[in-house]
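A student in our group prepared the protein record below, which I am reviewing. What it holds is a sequence and that sequence's fold in token form. My question to you is simply how this chain folds and whether the tokens agree. Do not assume that whoever made the record got everything right. I have pasted the whole thing underneath without changing anything:
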Amino acid sequence: MIQENRQFFKQIAQKLPAQLFLCNMEDRSSLHHDSRAMTKAEQSWALQVEKEQLALLFGLQRFHTYCCCNPDLTLETDHKALVNISKKALSSALKRLQRMLLRMQRYSYNLSLA
């Protein structure tokens, strides 16, 4: 179960499908693991940052039970551009990213570079 409300997601985005882990922050032990293959339409997206954002959104939605009321949630990614885009104003992002960022606004999280 959740220990001290300190969980983080680690996204491994080198290969498809995206793999997501819900881990305990103290000892980095895995609590849950999930993955999904991208659809044909998602695979045809030109920008890698959109695919990375999709994986983070998938993780938040899949592990909603753990994420919805967790103020100490940290999302880790290996994609520096994604971290920079998330810090900017929502209107400066691409339309597809705006839609994903809007769906992620219900969660309280910190996005950091792994």
